[in-house]
Design goal:
seven-stranded mixed sheet, three-stranded antiparallel sheet, 7 helices, 10 strands, about 25% helix, about 25% strand, SAM-dependent_MTases_sf, S-adenosyl-L-methionine-dependent methyltransferase
Length: about 250
């Protein structure tokens, strides 16, 4: 089973915080605030030691920076599929932040490009894209252990909901939708014998890193704290929302 690295998760999390607040990005009027979600996905991708990371983006996004930071930590690479009109700006932002060698930009229809990438360890699809459900289904994920994130899953939009087609091996697929950022579904894929070693939240054994990030919650009047924990013995990943302090 792929090991979880608390050290890598922490480094990527802090690196993303630093990069997304870099003064070089302050003049970027098109950047979209994504409270907590960028740091969260960076830590998750780095902690599971992802080597091949694929993002289907709708435009210039902090998630691209976050995933590039994760790739830097793991020695992997990020493939970012995005629309042609935002390519130059995205390249400029990534270059200015010193992440150029970590990102492979591709433009065009994601449904025609995704088949070029197999055994993806970590993938993120921006649900602002039209046809995002089709892109989610076209991902060729690593059956041993991988994560698929459906980001900006607003309102009644639906992600994989635990269903993944085309798997040649018997795997367990678990999807949970969280009110992180503007809405995010995290789907975890793994072989049955590995993911079912232990069940339940807060199982025994050593716990991995507790990563806190702030995500805006509609109707709360503030920000909620999130903790992501991994049991290093069972490999179980758990996400908790902490009550907002009064």
């Amino acid at each position: 089973m792929m090991e979880w690295s608390a050290t890598s998760a922490t480094k990527a999390y802090l690196d993303t915080l630093k990069l997304c607040n870099n003064p070089k990005r302050q003049s970027d009027s098109r950047k979209t605030p994504e409270p907590g979600s960028s740091e969260f996905v960076s830590a998750l991708a780095a902690g599971m030691k992802s080597k091949l990371i694929v993002e289907v983006a709708s435009g210039v996004s902090p998630s691209t920076i976050a995933l590039a930071a994760a790739a830097r930590e793991t020695g992997g690479r990020l493939v970012c599929i995005l629309p042609e009109p935002v390519l130059c700006e995205s390249k400029r932002v990534i270059k200015d932040l010193g992440l150029k060698d970590l990102v492979e930009f591709r433009t065009g229809d994601p449904s025609e490009l995704l088949h070029n990438y197999e055994n993806i360890d970590f993938s993120l699809v921006d649900c602002k894209n039209e046809g995002y459900t089709r892109f989610l289904k076209l991902l060729d994920v690593n059956p041993r252990r991988s994560v698929v994130v459906a980001n900006n899953l607003v309102g009644e939009k639906k992600g994989l909901e635990g269903h993944l087609r085309g798997m040649k091996e018997k795997v367990v697929v678990r999807s949970l939708k969280h009110p992180i950022g503007k809405g995010m579904e995290v789907t975890m894929i793994g072989r049955k014998e590995e993911t079912h070693k232990k069940e339940g939240v807060g199982g025994c054994g050593r716990s991995g890193i507790g990563i806190r990030s702030c995500g805006s919650m509609k109707g709360t009047g503030g920000k909620s704290k999130w903790i992501f924990k991994v049991d290093e013995e069972s490999g179980e990943e758990h996400i908790f929302r902490m009550p907002k302090s009064v």
